[in-house]
Amino acid sequence: KTSQSCFCTADSISILKWFTCCFFVSIKTSSRCLSDLFCLCVYRKFSRGKMAESKQELKKPEFIKVEQLRPGTSGHNLRVKVVNTKQIVRQRGRAESLVGDETGMIVFTARNEQVNVMKEGSIVDIANAKIELQKKSMRLVLPFDRTGSVKAAAAEAADITVNEDCNFSLIEFDQVSIVEP
Questions:
Q1: Nearest-angstrom CA–CA distance, 7 and 89
Q2: Which residues lie in coiled coils (predicted)?
């Protein structure tokens, strides 16, 4: 038999060299499907190596402002300054920190190791936070599934002047049920 045609779209010379050395396997088979499958396996083998070599840069998180927070939303990244922190007496390992930026302030409920990061006057990055209503007021919290984080901000982070006139945790919200006819 003569050599079979292959629908392989590999563009690398190294793939072609490797393929040429091993092509006799597909020549001996009478099935075109096996030949195409062989080409696909070769292409995948070499394309994985290339993808591993070209590492993608991680995106820097986009920080939003406190004034953009709304009840029931999640996935927020904020860079805020800690105004003050109060331990919750009845619940061990919890603290409520008043945090803010130039647009306003909000109460952040810190748990366990997060409490240690929330020092008065420090600038912190809060990642993947959500807004919950507690006693009709907004609270910034991290999800229980540990997908969020609180870290001290990088050294190059500029100092934040907090707008203490606008505390979004003092706004009361009423939950309204909408009934469709």
A1: 70
A2: none
